[in-house]
Write a structure and sequence with these properties.
The complex is a heterodimer of chains A (491) and B (343). Chain A is an alpha+beta fold and 491 residues long. Chain A is built from 14 helices and 19 strands. In chain A, 30% of the residues lie in helices and 27% in strands. About 19% of the residues of chain B have low confidence. The chains are: A alpha+beta (491), B alpha/beta (343).
Amino acid sequence: MISHRDNNTQRIAALDEQAEALKLKRGMGIADARAMHPTIDVVEADAEADRRLLEGLADWCDRYTPLVAIDGEDGLFLDVTGCTHLFGGERAMQEEILARFLQQGFDVRAGLASTPGAAWAAARFHGDRIVAGGEEEELLAPLPLSALRIAPQTRTGLESVGLRTAGAVMAAPRAPLARRFGATLLLRLDQALGRLDEAVSPRLPVAPLSVERHLAEPIMLTDDIERLVSRLAVALKSDLERRGEGARTLALLLFRVDGAVSRISVGTSRPMREPRLIQRLFHERLTAMEQNIDAGFGFDLVRLSVLSVAAFDMLQGDLAGEETDDDADIALFADRIRARLGEAAVLKPVVVESHLPERAVTAVPFAEAPQRRAPKPDRTAPPMTIYPPERPVRLFRSPEPIEVPATEIPEGPPMNFRWRRALYRVARAEGPERIAGEWWRQLPGEAEAPTRDYYRIEDSEGRRYWLYRQGLYSSAPQAAPPRWFMHGVFA
Amino acid sequence: MLPEVNVMAMSAVARDTVFALRRQIAKIEGTLPERLQAPVAGVSADAVRSDMTLVRRGLAVASADALLCTGIERLDTALGGGLPKAALGEIHGLETRDAGAVAGFALSLISLILKEKQGLPVLWIGTAEIFHEAGFPYARGLHALFGIAPEQLLFSEAPKLLDALWIAEEAARMTAFAAVILEIRGSPQRLDLTATRRLHARAQNAGRPVLLLRQAGEAEPTAAPVRLIVSAAPSASRETVAGPLAGSIGRPAFTVDIGKSRTALPGQFTLEWNPNEHAFAERSAEKERAEDPVAVVPASARGADPAPASGAVLAFPAVAASAAGDQPPRQQHPAHRGPRRAG
């Protein structure tokens, strides 16, 4: 028996057959139930775990149709339009789904109808019924009001005026109903009867293209999966060619025999359709994930989906038939690294117009970086300075605080400093180069970023550093002295 | 006329065979072929000339192309013509704080390579540890100093050394990169002779250099034919129209030691990188700063000597130093209260 807290009382949320045989009911207080049967076993409800289980089931239902939606806390919608013939018709499909769920240990009720509302009512009030198109009214008429998916207040309101079945509501004049109980009631009614369309919004975006293979003998080995991927990719190639497109994101779905589904996706930085390359990308991904994929008793359905596509530009090889497309090589290299080590494994620097050194260059993942192209003359570019400011070859990600005991003049360079617990004697210094905070980026209430004075420093052993003093010396009492930071290293 | 030509043709065939064999030997031994090829003294001028023809036609042309000349005659001679291009090259920094100089030297070599292969990208692989300890490469600085455009650069940060090695191996076999840099810290077990040999073999096949930068590492046996130990050298002053500007910091300078080379003797060189011409220049001994010491900056406006350095630096004051009473050690004095010469 499972309890949940409702209005400061523990009530029964769900119970099994044995408890039902003891005449316990849902919604009953736990204290009452314990008084009746002191030996009952009560478990606290865990909504999060229920949700995870339902999502797992929805994943598993992906094998029947790509359009799976979660309905409330305990229901799933499957839009099987155009899929039933693959499983031998509506009746056979519903029976297979029920049988499979039963084998997994779930007590499931199903209903199949041409509108989601009617299917909902059929599943909950008939258990196993297929409603043909046009029979919705006949199905709903004898059912109680809760078959209409309406709010409890509306239901009690309707019952108080004597409308106790869905058929009675249908027979009542519409205008007063709408005036008294709101538009939702009639909307639900019309949707259930097919007078209005109701869309089932799927949990996951539907892949534009996917190929799958049902396996009589489940496979477990990574090598077998890879071989299957390349076969599926061959089937995918002709579809992509017909559409003149290449894949940008690919997902491999592995349906395990016992219902768990693994979803493995790879991204490409340029449209791809070559089966060999697709297989190599999945090879890296599968190698990296080898420990995370639990094959269990094997996978009996493998699906390769293209999640996003882009136009594929055909390139003609040169006369000798040798293609040396360096950019393509690098893109493939970056994709393979990305597949194995994650999105940010290959970075490309992008120059940003900013005075702050750490903001002037950002590293973006390779796939998101703008493609290389011939530099075009930029008229808005600022004029070149004859002496551009010197910048270090390495920059610390976050400036490291250093201790500066003294400077010869208050706003001058340090004479020596301590960095990472070692003392450095300054032999020469150049500067300061003053870089003020970017006030135009500040939020209204934010304090102004302190000004930085940068110095190029050479220590007594010839190493060159880039230090800065944050803030200025102030004559005001209790003013904090400025702090010093190490920001970069010169060649 | 005819017989003579025949003889020459035959001798040419024989020489071809000899050169092919020498090349095989060179490949097996891993030495540079021209070491074996030095013209034998006492051969007639004619033979030397035909030697040269052959050299130009076959081996030497390729091998001259296979070496990267630093432009410093002394260093190039010491290395036997230059650094091999299609090989793994090791560049060591003794301490992590030398990372700037090591990176700068490696990038200047790449800048020399890019003179021939313009526009090809450069991949820089590093472990997360080294990028955190020594700083991430800064694209703006690289562009200004070495002429490597930000669009040409690719960085790869690997969480573990094993991943970094995998990326490097994959990258080393590609011809689409002008060069690959692999930067690591310390002397890890994983980077042993086998791992470096794999990298070296891939670099040889692809004909592209792989530079292994090791910060704060010990010299360990690796497959790299050349190991250079680089540290920062004090730079010269900036040159102005009115002569060197006192107290300024000029072009980047490096001290390069040949740590290992099959052909060279150990030696030390001080190089200066010219960012305008993208070329090295050797600093002659008399220009060294040792002879032109520059004191603490900024130089005093009145031209007087700045305060001398305080006494000898000791790691820990000896117990006997308690004679100074409760005074803190000298190092902790603010400099303006430091010892000052009377008068």
